Amino acid sequence: MQKTGFYAGMSPYLYPLYILIHPVDGYRELKNNKKYSMTAANVVLALWVLQRILAWGYSDFDFKTPAALESPVDLPRILLTTVALFAIACVSNWCFCTLMDGKGRLREIWIACAYALLPYVLLGLARVGLSHAMVLDEAVFLTYLNAIGLLWTAFLLFEAVYVVHDYTVPRAAGAIVLTALGVLIIAFLVILVTGLATQIYSFFKTIYFEIKLRV
Amino acid sequence: MKKIIALLAALLCLSLPASADYRYNGFGEPVATARSFTAVGAVNGTALGIGDFKSPSDVFADENGLVYILDCGNNRVVVLNNDLTLNREVRPEGFDLGEAGGLYAAGGLIYVAHAGDEKIYVINTEGETVREISRPDSPLLEGAAFTPLKVLADGIGTVYMLSANSTQGAYMIGADNSFLGFFGRNDVVLTFRRMMELASRRFASDEQRETMQNFIPVEFANFDVDADGFIYTVTSYSENPEQDEMIKKLNPMGDNVLSKLSARTWGDNPDAGAYPTSFADIAADENGFSYALDGASGKIFWYDDNLSQICAFGGSGNVLGAFTGPTAVETLDSRVLVLDNVKNSVTVFEKTRFGELMTEGRRLYNSGYFKESKDIFREIITMDPDCDFAWGALGAAVYEEGDAALAKEYFERSRTAAEKYSEVKKQLRSTWMKEHFALIFGGVIALALIIIAASKLVAAKLKEGRI
Q: Are residues B294 and B386 located together in one domain of the fold?
């Protein structure tokens, strides 16, 4: 194992924080030194879910969306748009990149991409807190905060795909576009299969009741 | 024909739920509310002992509290006292009321807009014609229709008239029967769809262009004048009730005095799945509150003196308080009269306690008397606990009294007063910062020191490779 750099001896649990500030070096070392931690990745995902719940239920009144004012937290919906979306994106990326000579394994993709979400999640949590201190005149700061988080995360995601699969820059960009397409295809298939499964279920249910009521 | 209408009405009754008062909350959703008006009775010709009304077309209450019903089919104007008992019948001499559509009364004179004769007749209570307005001789009126549908007049003899097939607004006719000019008029709002159509017109051939639709403003369906001389107009059709001014409040210059900044939906909200509203008439009461009648659904939309919608009542059906052929609405003191030309009756609505509180509360609040309106809104929220307007008004009242924390709570309960909530929050924040300045200042310095120390410590440990 090759030990390079100042933070080489750092614990894998703190590694996401290191990547946060040193994305290029961080991902390079992640790949070279195998500094993957599934636990740390899942903690980031859990934080993402927590951030969404807090933003829905605990933002201050003047920063709540009309939907959040009207209905309580919808956990299935939040899980679907965070963890499930992330899983689909990872699988989609793995599918395409395996075909495109990518070096990354599914586990590595999952962990590297989860680390990349950290700036968006942390700034999102900060936004929930700041909503209690800020007033509507200053709402533009929170919007900037959100935009910074998104851009940062987008850059980290790109870096993650670029390093984990050992791609060139244009190839990584193409892989990301294909991944987005793959997400749409998988979502379509999931909806199709769910629809069919519901129909099959109701078909057998009808047969069951038909027999039960007549025999 | 009547049977068909009755059948259709019966079918409508079956398909619609029993109507109840509702209002739109801050999110544009209809919610049930306490009743503001109840139908207490209906006036018809038989009960008055003068024989049934026959296709009555308009009702008007004058400044003395007399009610005039334009009973065209029987060629008479029925005058009722303030307590809705018969005062007299006026039968016009020299002309037939057959196709008269609109009526106005002031100073003992009755103005009748007669589309069939293309004339406005002014008759006295004996039925004698004292003034007759026919098409004025004016170059401005060349090519314009002159088919009087509705009529109003002011104190100095100027007559305002709405004509069929005219998009120019109301016609102003002076005391000497000369044409003074047009008044009001709707504008065509430039929407994206219309812009696209205008662009495509540039590339069309002359033949294609001829078949294309022109953008012309929609004509006024009806109008009314309030005690201060403002004229309220209604338009029966709008492609986008969020932007178009389906109801206008015109000053004597003909300008709409309503704020264009606040977006409002006139009548029902099509986004909430309602049918588009088709206003047939409007009436303003002594407080400047107004009542707009939907000629299709029989609903009456109640607006306060800022023309913000309070609630909707009425509906379609055969029971008391619902309509099959609603044509005109009028206010009489605090009562609301609705003329139905299929049921041939005038339904009388009276304000409930809730309606009275709402009137008084909104009137005070809109004139800036927040503290004075507090007790009223407190009572309102015991009857309609989700009323966002009431919570917002209560917030404004306690804020004026100096209780910012409670005001913040009330604004939050209103769920729509985010701006005011923010304002109070800002004030509370600056007070807090002034009180705790030493703490904040010290805290910031301490935090900075801690961060510097901690980062040095962590860096040192990392160098040793111990984390």
A: no
Rg, Å, chain B Cα set: 29
Whole-angstrom Cα Rg for chain A: 21
A140 vs B: CB within 8 A: no
Q: Does A180 touch chain B (CB under 8 A)?
A: no
State which residue of chain A sits closest to B29, comparing Cα positions: A70
Percent of chain B residues topping a pLDDT of 70 = 94
- Judged by a CB distance cut-off of 8 A, whether residue A25 touches chain B is no
Q: How far is A94 from chain B (nearest CA, A)?
A: 32
- Give B335 to chain A, closest Cα distance, Å: 36
- Residue B39 three-state SS: strand
Chain B residues in contact with A9 by the CB 8 A cut-off are 462, 465-467
Are B268 and B284 within one domain? Answer: yes
Task: Determine, for residues B429 and A6 on separate chains, whether the beta-carbon distance falls below 8 Å.
Answer: no
Quote the percentage of chain A above a pLDDT of 70: 96
Q: Per the domain annotation, does B361 fall within a domain? A: no
Residue closest to A119 by CA, chosen among A141, A146, A139, A93: A146
In this complex, the residue of B411, B426, B466 whose CB is nearest that of residue A135 is B426
Domain enclosing residue B257, as ranges = 2-351
How many other C-beta atoms lie within 10 A of the C-beta of residue B2?
7
Residues 6+ apart with CB under 8 A from A191: none
For residues B299 and B400, membership in a common domain is answered with no
- Tens of pLDDT, residue by residue over B256-269, are 888 766 667 788 88
Domain boundary among B317, B351, B385: B351
Q: What is the pLDDT of residues A30-56, one digit of tens each?
A: 888 777 889 999 999 999 999 999 999
Residue B360 falls inside a structural domain: no
Cβ neighbours of A69 in B, within 8 Å: 27, 415
Shortest Cα distance, chain A CAs vs residue B415, angstroms: 7
B125 and B200 part of one domain = yes
| Distance from C-alpha of B316 to C-alpha of B319, rounded to nearest angstrom | 9
